[in-house]
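Dear colleague,

Thank you for sharing your sequence with our group. We've completed the structure prediction you requested, and as agreed, I am returning the results in plain text so they can be pasted directly into your records. Please verify that the sequence below matches your submission; if there's any discrepancy, let me know and we will rerun it promptly.
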Amino acid sequence: MGLKIRALKMLTPSKELAGQHYTYEDIAVRHGEPVRNALIEFIVSGPVVVFAVEGVSAIENVRKLCGATEPLKSAPGTIRGDYAHHTFAATKPLGLAVRNLIHASADANDAERELALWFTSADYQTYRTNDQNEHFLN
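Please find the predicted structure tokens below.
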């Protein structure tokens, strides 16, 4: 069936939460400490909307909807392809993070870790979508 949002909220993350999200081991080791610092500064600069999505191949499908990490390489019709315009080449010399508008977990391990940072069990809703109701399944 399709994707469904199980949890959703808007908040301005603290630097501590941002640092836990953008781990040193992941971001700084792969891309350098300045990139990690720029990502943290960007994500704490204002409110973000966080959501947990469930469904068949949810991670892969959400990543497809988001588009490539660098907006320049994102296909039209994706969130980054249609609504973001920064490039690595333009932002790196300025010490800025690419404003790619959306983050999606890379894999199931990242999703488990990241969801635990942003949500508690009380944040999740259980419901059936119309396509999950019996009259749509017959």
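Summary note from our side: The first strand starts at residue 4 and ends at 11.

Kind regards,
the structure core
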